[in-house]
Design goal:
Layout (H helix, E strand, L loop, with lengths): L1 E5 L13 E2 L42 E7 L22 E5 L4 E4 L25 E6 L23 H7 L24 H12 L1 E4 L2 E5 L16 E2 H13 L4 H13 L19 E8 L7 E8 L11 H18 L3 H4 L1 H14 L30 H17 L7 H21 L1 E3 H8 L23 H6 L5 E3 L2 E3 L2 E3 L2 E2 H10 L4 H13 L1 H4 L8 E2 L4 H8 L20 H10 L3 H14 L9 E2 L5 E2 L8 H15 L1 H4 L28 H6 L4
Antiparallel strand pairs: 1-4, 2-11, 3-6, 4-5, 7-8, 9-10, 10-11, 12-13, 14-15, 16-17, 18-19
């Protein structure tokens, strides 16, 4: 019997950026046999859904072993190192190969402290099953993720063409990626939906024969795809939800684990590296020629952490979306074992370490640069943009649900609770504007130097834009786009407001007010195509100064007031939560009339969203997926309840300011409580 080893590692920061591949070599410096029966991630809850890729081979690289330590603690504390910026735990696997069967094993570690855990008893980890190995020369190992022993019958050599044929999709039956009928729909599916499902499946990207994501756009007429042929973390979220809601979790699990693997890589721009927990903005599957072979190629993952992006901006929202999607995967599949894995728990903590790092800021909101989220070009959102705060709040709530509490994480969980409390109060109190609040700002006194100041951020009343005075309705309001000392950005940013509803960052009354405003200003925010990414657009001198005369962000185009159909699924989720599904149905019906005819564009231009965007990519995947997700959510509103959060009243009882101890006036925590609708 031949034995091939494949080891997932605890890694230090590698000294250079490398590509992850599927090619065979040995960590001990000697060649190992090919394993022609590869693994795919197994579903913890179903032993009948284990698939095998027939042509991907296990892979390690030649590296010098520096040392190892054996883990003796069965409760996983040994994997939780004190300095998460230095090392990250990984999972270990081994593969034994003979002529007829392939064994893959990883110890399955589950939590006994979560109410919805699938484990009946506290699991015990075989202390011989895990070792921490430190390797010099970079993270060149593709960790395997099989979670139980499987015996695979010998199927012989199979070509890629045969595998692809096995995965062909029957659109009429809405079959899954593995060729099985998994659709949850019992109603008749429209022609537009059938087309959308076919396009979504055509956008799937395979890595070593397994699906790992969807490309940003799959426009056959585009000769210069730029980075639209990559898998973006934020773009994949609606695709992931569409697959999950349709009963297909495999691609989402693969995506979560492969992006987690990329998290550990060194990210360097001009000799400077950001924190280790940064998730990539995107990755691309490339085919590279094998050394010493004639025409043979291998798949490699090539991530972009912002060092190739326009403006070289780090993707702050990628890690937040990853955590949100991880929770959604568990909620919709019941596979909570994934989020309880050692490497996944470590990945969550690395992201939180970046977000919760102490700095000079006086606010609980997250400080970011311009272009660090969906609006990834200069649009004057640097500082504390609402979109980032809403995603940050959601990721914190997700993490509090998923983190296993032990001696290592208890301080982190306490920090999460404190930040959630402070952030919710800050946004609800200072970002909200309605007619009453606007009149209050209009009468502000300035230059107040006192702990009792009303105008705490020294906002000058003349900042109130003239358009807002007549635009804001009597009933309703919204959360402003940004708040900094001496500055309020009064623009309406749709994603941030919608996600504030979904995550309960706003109070119940505020959430209702946001939907009331959207309904009242339907012609401005929806018009001919849902939904405006922001309102109003920057024009004339303001556009020139704030965007730097950006030719792509001209008024009412792209991020500067363009209409983005992908926002439809978030609008639908918010409407279902607030028991206003009729608004979502109206918007979906509007989009359904045009999207297929217009070839599923990325965005629309003009004040009313009449024209397809002048630089809009066609067959944009998250446009397609956003439409499908909205349709499924409206047909299955009980699924939506797994994706949003209700008010957490415990957060309102937490006050971290401790002002009373210093003899100062107590904070106005009661203001937030008074706005809660019970």
């Amino acid at each position: 019997m031949n034995t091939c080893s494949c080891i997932g590692i605890s890694t230090m920061k590698p000294c250079c950026r490398v590509l992850i591949s599927c090619r065979n070599s040995s960590v001990f410096g000697s060649p190992i046999p090919n394993c022609n029966h590869s693994h795919l991630v197994a579903n913890n809850l179903s032993k009948s859904q284990f698939k095998v890729d027939k042509f991907c081979r296990f892979h390690t690289f030649n590296n010098r072993i520096l040392g190892y330590k054996r883990v003796n603690d069965s409760n996983r504390k040994a994997f939780n190192v004190s300095d998460l910026n230095w090392v990250q735990s990984r999972v270990f696997t081994s593969c034994s190969v003979d002529k007829s069967k392939c064994f893959s094993l990883v110890a399955n570690v589950a939590s006994d402290i979560r109410n919805h855990s699938t484990a009946g008893e506290k699991p015990q980890v075989n202390e011989k099953g895990f070792e921490s190995i430190y390797i010099q020369g970079g993270l060149n190992v593709k960790p395997l993720v099989i979670e139980r022993i499987e015996i695979i019958p010998d199927v012989g050599e199979v070509s890629k063409e045969e595998v692809n044929n096995d995965r062909s999709v029957n659109v009429d039956d809405l079959k899954g990626l593995n060729g099985t009928n998994v659709s949850i729909h019992e109603r008749e599916v429209s022609v537009v939906e059938k087309e959308a499902w076919k396009l979504l499946r055509d956008a799937v990207v395979n890595y070593c024969g397994i699906p790992v994501g969807t490309v940003a756009a799959n426009d056959p007429g585009e000769k210069q795809p730029l980075n639209y042929d990559q898998v973006f973390v934020r773009d994949f979220v609606p695709s992931a939800l569409a697959f999950l809601l349709n009963g297909e979790g495999e691609i989402v699990r693969n995506f979560l684990l492969h992006t987690l693997q990329l998290q550990s890589w060194e990210k360097t721009v001009d000799c400077y590296s950001p924190g280790q927990g940064l998730m990539p903005a995107s990755f691309k599957v490339r085919q590279m020629p094998l050394d010493g072979s004639d025409g043979a190629v291998e798949d490699v993952l090539d991530p972009d952490f912002g060092e190739s992006a326009i403006g070289r901006v780090a993707p702050v929202d990628s890690g937040l979306w990853w955590i949100i999607l991880l929770r959604a995967y568990g909620k919709l599949t019941g596979d909570y074992g994934l989020q309880e894995r050692v490497d996944v728990q470590t990945g969550i903590r690395l992201i939180l370490n970046l977000c919760l790092t102490d700095g000079f800021d006086m606010f609980p909101s997250l400080l970011v640069t311009d272009g660090s989220c969906m609006i990834d070009r200069r649009m004057g959102i640097h500082g504390h943009p609402l979109e980032i705060q809403a995603l940050f709040y959601s990721a914190l709530r997700c993490s509090r649900e998923m983190l296993i509490v032990n001696d290592v994480t208890k301080n982190l969980v306490a920090a999460i609770n404190n930040r959630l409390s402070a952030l919710s109060f800050h946004i609800r109190e200072y970002y909200w504007v309605d007619m009453k609040k606007l009149n209050e700002i209009y009468r502000y006194k300035t230059e107040e130097y006192s702990t009792d100041a009303v105008n705490k951020f020294n906002i000058y009343p003349d900042q109130i834009p003239s358009w807002l005075v007549d635009w804001i309705p009597e009933e309703g309001g919204y959360l402003i786009g940004n708040l900094e000392p001496g500055h309020m950005d009064f623009r309406f940013f749709t994603l941030g407001n919608l996600w504030s509803i979904v995550s309960s960052l706003g109070t119940h009354e505020q959430n209702e007010g946001i939907l009331n405003l959207i309904e009242a200003k339907w012609d401005d925010l929806v018009a001919h195509m849902p939904l405006k990414i922001c309102y109003p657009a920057l024009e004339y001198e303001e556009w020139r100064i704030i965007t730097g005369s950006d030719p792509k962000n001209t008024p009412w185009s792209y991020h500067n007031g363009g209409s983005w159909p992908t926002l439809l699924w978030q609008f639908t989720l918010a409407c279902i939560k607030m028991k206003r599904p009729e608004l979502a149905r109206k918007a979906v019906a509007l989009a359904e009339k045009r999207l297929s005819v217009d070839q599923w564009p990325e965005y629309y231009d003009t004040r009313g969203g009449r024209f397809v965007g002048k630089q809009s990519r066609l067959f944009q995947t998250w446009t397609i997926a956003g439409f499908l997700t909205s349709k499924i959510l409206l047909e299955n509103p009980e699924k939506a309840s797994k994706l949003f959060w209700d008010e957490d009243y415990e957060l309102l009882e937490i006050c971290v300011c401790a002002l009373s101890k210093s003899g100062r006036k107590k904070c106005s925590r009661g203001v937030a409580k008074s706005q809660i609708h019970i």
